[in-house]
Write a structure and sequence with these properties.
The protein is α+β, with helices and mostly antiparallel strands. 29% of the residues lie in helices and 33% in strands. It has two domains: 7-188, 2-enoyl-CoA Hydratase, Chain A, domain 1 (Alpha-Beta Complex); 200-338, Invasion associated locus B (IalB) protein (Immunoglobulin-like), CATH 2.60.40. The protein is built from ten helices and 19 strands. The strands form five sheets. The chain has a six-stranded antiparallel beta sheet with strand order 10-11-12-13-17-16. Strands 1-2-3-4 form a four-stranded mixed beta sheet, with helices on one face. Strands 15-14-18-19 form a four-stranded antiparallel beta sheet. The longest helix has 18 residues, at 142-159. Residues 1-23 form the signal peptide. This is Periplasmic protein. Keywords: Signal.
Length: 340
């Protein structure tokens, strides 16, 4: 079987040793989304085929990888194509009509995988990295080539929101050594986010009103929590949720609402603002009593739920508070002090 490698790969890529040309891309419609499976070597053909698929897919899509490497330049370009498309990524291989089995994503594959806006990892699947170096004889230009490739990889990882600690692991690998990332490293380097972008919290102001805002985007949509000081030392809690095309349906089917704290749903029986469409968001507001204030302050995650006909079904969001507990508690305490 012939071997396919670009000139760039021959000159600068480590441990990719011109893999046999057995790459393949397949597509299926399953689990209410488009699922794209990449196997074998990642080449320019892989990149071009995925680019063509992105132009025809409508709705959510996931790219699954089961490959031990390929061409570095094509892998980086493939990751950028995936990111521009908004597709998610995962590691696994297709089984049956809708199943997914664990897979391997090694070497250049991890760069393409990092392109997913939401990055999942099937239980039992592997992410493996190694040091990139030049195959064959060394030469006077090796240092220049190494610097160029280091800049390209670190720049790409930064662009994709991956912690550069991953690059440090890569360069520490011995020649020919593949390092399998641990679950702790995967979380610490933000390789897999399992459908959740990092949260952001801050105190902002507009039109003379100061408010605390926390927001986090997930595979379900973008959720925002706004807290402002209300009369009598109270706090007004506003929930904004952008579920895209589902917004109108959520409003139409809404029969009740809950404050979400961690895995709990605490009923909100009286709203100061019933759910309405406000721009791109569904907006609802209420004044939490002291019991709910306690729950908000003590929870690690806080959010809101819009329930349908059955209380067990809902649409909504959570925002991670971890690392921002003091900001949230201090703002609530400030509001309570203003009313005294």
């Amino acid at each position: 079987m012939p071997k396919l490698c670009s000139r760039l790969a021959l000159a600068i890529i480590a441990n990719l040793a011109c893999l046999p040309a057995f790459g393949d891309v397949s597509v299926r419609e399953a689990n209410s989304r488009t699922e794209i499976f990449v196997t074998g070597e990642i080449t320019s053909d892989t990149r071009d085929e995925i680019a063509q698929i992105t132009r025809s897919v409508r709705g959510p899509a996931v790219v699954y990888f089961d490959t031990i490497g390929g061409d570095l330049l094509s892998g980086l370009e493939l990751g950028r194509i995936i990111r521009r498309s908004g597709f998610a990524t995962d590691v696994g291989r297709a089984t049956g009509s809708s199943g997914v089995a664990p897979g391997k994503c090694h070497s250049v594959c991890t760069m393409s995988y990092a392109g997913g806006y939401f990055r999942y990892l099937q239980p039992g699947s592997q992410l493996g990295v190694h040091r990139f170096y030049r195959n064959g004889r060394t030469g006077a230009s090796d240092l220049d080539v190494g610097q160029v490739m280091s800049a390209a990889i670190t720049g790409y990882l930064t662009e994709m929101g991956i912690d550069l600690g991953l690059f440090e692991v890569m360069v520490k690998a011995g020649r020919g050594q593949m390092i399998m990332l641990s679950s702790d490293q995967i979380a610490r380097f933000r390789m897999a986010n399992f459908g959740f972008q990092p949260p952001s919290w801050g105190i902002e102001g507009a039109k003379g009103i100061v408010y605390l805002k926390g927001e986090q985007e997930s595979f379900n949509g973008l959720g925002k929590v706004l807290m402002t000081c209300a009369k009598g030392g109270q706090v007004k809690f506003s929930a904004l949720f952008n579920a895209g095309a589902r917004n109108s349906a959520i409003i139409a089917s809404n029969k009740g609402n809950s404050l979400r704290t961690n895995d709990r749903f605490l009923p909100v029986n009286q709203l100061s603002q019933a759910p309405v469409i406000s721009g791109d968001f569904i907006l609802a507001s209420f004044i939490p009593d002291q019991n709910l204030i306690f729950e908000i302050r003590s929870a690690t995650h806080v959010g809101f739920a819009f329930h349908g006909d059955q209380s067990s079904t809902f649409h909504g969001f959570l925002v991670d508070k971890r690392g921002n507990e003091d900001m949230v508690s201090s703002f609530i305490q400030h509001c309570q002090g203003v009313g005294r």
